[in-house]
UniProtKB/TrEMBL annotation, chain B:
CDD domains: REC_OmpR, trans_reg_C. This is Response regulator transcription factor. The modification 4-aspartylphosphate is found at D52. Residues 126-226 bind DNA. It comes from Streptomyces goshikiensis. Residues 3-116 form the Response regulatory domain. It holds the Pfam family Response_reg. Residues 126-226 form the OmpR/PhoB-type domain. Keywords: DNA-binding, Phosphoprotein, Transcription, Transcription regulation, Two-component regulatory system.
Length: 478, 227
């Protein structure tokens, strides 16, 4: 089924206004027309009938009248006709005479004749013939006998065309129509004004809602007046305030949680610094102790080291969360940089590289070293041998990019794990609850690359193995 | 083995680091506050100062400045990563290097050794005193004079100057300088280099005009000269 396209509020308002204007114009025109027409016709009719009555009353005719006398009486009556000229017909005992050429009228009905007999004061009827409308009226001639009015049997009929009245009424119809049309035109103006007064707040509300949706929670609408739209605006403002309040609360709760993590890490760091400084002493002494004590000591020193690394990673994450991480950018030769990272960890023989000479980039050396070490270390740990690192400059619409790819030939990443691979403390294998890393390595990698204005993607290669792609601006903006 | 003055307010770090270094043969004197540390400067006459930046009373940066007023003893700051601003201020105040806590004794000792290490003089054909413009550089005596007047330089400053001036007009990247002068990894903090260059410039360059001896090569690093 086809639905009619919904019309706008403006169109509907204008249509409603026009409809109301049209109905009221038509109704008032119809009522005026009817009343005026009745008044005009009644006046003509009353004038005609009463003047006929006077004239007939003044006649003196012998009974039965002679046809020539009757005809001249008709002519006299016609001459004195009011308000317009009538034609007068007289009927007496089946004989008819008239002031007109033909003695018989074509518009006088038997109905009128019958009425004339019963009403001594006269009868009236309007008759339409073709386009013309005629007023026909009958006036029986009476005489007084012994103080009683008696019918003489002689009836005079008047026939008066209502052409003038018809023209007047017609003119009224035209006037009503001509008045209604501009009224309709003028009705469009208040319609537009009303539409504007409704649509403007609606539009403001729409913009405010959009702005709120974009995260500008301090968006408010100016409330004008006290109508329903103002109520709506007030409700919107109250809702926005409530939303802003709860978002602020959430934000504060999150900030508290982050500050807590940062504080805890900070407090852990001081005792760890003391412990870490003496682990060597313990390790050196362990060789002189019995095996259990030595094993216990070595466990403590090894775990102290891991704890220190974990706390450092937590501190690093806290700084990213608090947006306190700083980028100390420097110009480096990318090939030399990657080689130095691998050499520092003695990985140079286990990793194949493809590094273009002369490629220079602006980046934070410490952070980018962490990125490379995490990705390559991850590949060596989970992906086995055949780790491959390549670097290249690639052009993107928004400028030159440094693209570094770290690929391995291991089993790849479980598709279920892939979306979470950069999550904090996400362990791919539930059974392997502790790995060599802190569980924050890839999360820190991602944050470090983001700090450079770039991103990291993880994927599985077609031929097997995982592929991590780092893409960031060749020149990190500080 | 060198005498090390350790100024650290936290007892566990003071004790742990002291213990570790003493076992490696260092003579360690520990102070809890900056005031105590400064007092020990005269009596203990340390060859190296390990200085915590966060100290009660006068803080590490102020202690560093006070020491530099009278002495060019090597100073290594103990700091936490993330105290970025303090690191920069400490380096500007004249510290030669910094160590991020927590650190193993081997790391601390490696830094101590690196700061104390004398640069190996290139093959002996060079004259003992080289003249570059108004500068006289004595490679054997590790002294520098400007217009005949001795310029007091901290260990990192003189090492940087010796390294750069050994190959005039050769451009060294910050990473290379971190490796050669500071014995740091290639990926260490380049701000060490920049701060040291700034300190060196205030001592040997003419205040007006652009640097003449230590020149910046934008996007690459630093070079000595051309004069």
């Amino acid at each position: 089924m086809r639905r009619i396209a919904p019309l706008g509020l403006r169109t509907r308002l204008i249509a409603a206004f026009l409809l109301v204007a049209a109905i009221s114009a038509a109704t008032s025109a119809a009522l005026t027309y009817r009343e005026a027409r009745t008044a005009i016709l009644k006046q003509s009719q009353d004038t005609a009938v009463s003047s006929m009555r006077d004239l007939v009353g003044r006649l003196s005719l012998p009974l039965p009248p002679r046809p020539d006398e009757l005809k001249s009486a008709c002519a006299d009556l016609a001459r004195s006709s009011q308000p317009h000229s009538w034609m007068v017909y007289a009927e007496y005992a089946g004989n008819t005479v008239s002031s007109a050429e033909s003695p018989n009228s074509t518009v006088i009905t038997d109905e009128l004749r019958a009425e004339a007999r019963t009403r001594p004061n006269g009868a009236v009827q309007r008759v339409r013939k073709g386009k013309e409308v005629y007023l026909t009226f009958a006036m029986p001639a009476t005489f007084k006998h012994n103080d009683r009015t008696q019918s003489s049997g002689l009836v005079f009929y008047g026939v008066m065309p209502l052409a003038t009245e018809q023209t007047t009424v017609q003119a009224m119809v035209v006037a009503a129509r001509d008045g209604a049309l501009p009224a309709l035109g003028i009705a469009v103006i208040p319609a537009l004004l009303a539409a504007r007064s409704v649509l403007k707040p609606v539009r403001r509300l729409r913009h405010a809602a959009l702005s709120l949706g974009r995260g500008k929670l301090d968006t408010r609408i100016e409330v004008k007046g006290s109508d329903e739209l103002a109520d709506l605006a007030r409700t919107f403002n109250e809702t926005a305030s409530a939303l802003e309040g709860s978002v602020e609360e959430l934000r504060q709760a999150e900030a508290r949680a982050r500050r807590f993590a940062a504080d805890v890490s900070h407090e852990l760091r001081t005792p760890l610094a003391g412990m870490l400084a003496v682990t060597e002493v313990l390790d050196e002494e362990a060789v002189h102790l019995d095996s259990d004590t030595a094993a216990a000591l070595r466990l403590i020193t090894a775990e102290t080291g891991k704890l220190a690394a974990l706390v450092e990673d937590l501190m690093e994450i806290s700084r990213f969360d608090a947006r306190a991480a700083e980028l100390h950018a420097d110009e480096v030769d990318v090939a030399e940089f990657v080689r130095k990272t691998l050499e520092r960890r003695h990985w140079q023989d286990r990793v194949a590289t493809e590094l273009p000479a002369g490629l220079r980039a602006r980046l934070d050396p410490r952070r980018f070293d962490v990125v490379l070490a995490n990705l390559v270390g991850n590949a060596l740990r989970h992906g086995g041998a055949d780790v491959h690192v390549s670097a290249a400059e690639e052009q993107r619409p928004d400028g030159a990019r440094l693209v570094v790819r770290v690929a391995d030939s291991g089993p790849g990443i479980d598709p279920e794990v892939l979306p979470h691979i950069f999550d904090r403390f996400y362990k791919a294998d539930a059974a392997r609850t502790r790995s060599a890393g802190s569980g924050l390595g890839l999360a820190i990698t991602l944050e470090n690359v983001r700090l450079h204005g770039g991103g990291v993607r993880a994927a599985n290669r077609d031929g097997g193995g995982a592929l991590f792609t780092v893409e960031m601006p060749l020149e990190a903006a500080v | 083995m060198p005498r090390v003055l350790l100024i650290e307010d936290d007892p566990s770090i003071r004790e742990g680091v002291g213990l570790g270094l003493r076992r490696r043969g260092h003579e360690v004197s520990a102070a809890e506050t900056g005031e105590d540390g400064l007092a020990l400067m005269a009596s203990f006459r340390p060859e190296l100062v390990l200085l915590d930046l966060m100290l009660p009373g006068i803080n590490g940066v102020q202690v560093c400045r006070r020491i530099r007023e009278t002495s060019q003893v090597p100073i290594i700051m103990l700091t936490a990563r993330g105290d970025d601003f303090d690191i920069v201020v400490g380096l500007e105040a004249g510290a030669d290097d910094y160590i991020v806590k927590p650190a193993r004794t081997e790391v601390i000792e490696a830094r101590v050794k690196a700061v104390l290490r004398r640069l190996s003089t290139p093959a002996g054909s060079r004259p003992e005193v080289e003249f570059h413009g108004e500068l006289a550089i004595d490679r054997a005596g590790l002294t520098v004079a400007k217009r005949g007047e001795r310029v007091p330089l901290a260990p990192s400053e003189i090492k940087l100057l010796l390294h750069l001036s050994a190959s005039p007009e050769h451009v060294f990247s910050r990473q290379q300088l971190l490796e050669y002068v500071w014995d740091h990894s290639y990926h260490a903090d380049a701000r060490l280099v920049d701060a040291c260059v700034r300190r060196l410039r205030t001592k040997i360059e003419n205040p007006a005009g652009s640097p003449r001896y230590i020149q910046t090569v934008r996007g690459f690093g630093y070079r000595f000269g051309p004069l």
